[in-house]
Fold this protein.
Amino acid sequence: MQKATAYQGFAKARLIVILAFMSSLAPLSTDMYLPALGEVQRSFTTTPFYAQLSLAIFFIAFAFGQLIYGPLSDVYGRKKPLYIGIALFIVASFACISFDSVDSFIFWRFLQALGGCAGVVIARAIINDNFALKEAASAFALMMVVSSLAPMLAPVFGGFLLDFFSWKSIFATLFALGILLFVLIIFGIQEKESVQRVKPEFKVVLVNYFHILQDRRFRIYILSSSLVMATIFAYITGSSFIFREYFGL
């Protein structure tokens, strides 16, 4: 009995670590990249606007993709949309260092975000599938603690790579992390057969989103959160150029 309980505890801890990794992949793709904005600008001989646009376009795709993967995971299960999303992330990460055009780079950054955001959405759904209500709250908290390390450490790690290699090494690292996560999903996450799937009704999804937006409390919360995040990322986008180009850090 004790061995079975210990094994279950280990399996749940392993699952949470994998889910935290899934949630961290997209933030890693932005925060590791921040110190390289100036290098990207010089590499493509472009303006700061286009270098920063490659970051802004990432967030646009990241926001849009989350509206898609939730309904897809309810229809086709958790792992199939995950496979598609992470595979798209892997291909896009490799493509980001394979083209010499800034326009192509921005396009692949869009697809990179569109693939990477699958893990953020579906990780939460998998917790709901595998944990009871009280356990789910603890699992969410633990997952957030683990995944919050990524945005804190990623800029330092990205800067370290830039000290020894070019900015392309950052995307090579993201490419390798994407492959690692793909393997972990294959062997570390089991599809719950007991989860009830819904019919693919696009109209119903749109109606549900419309009803949510009609809720005044939801609009207040989402607007407050959006303004806070907008302020943070306005600072993040501009600070890289200031610290590296003006202060020489």
About this structure: The domain at 2-199 is CATH 1.20.1250.20 (Growth Hormone; Chain: A;). The mean pLDDT is 82. The chain has one domain: 2-199.
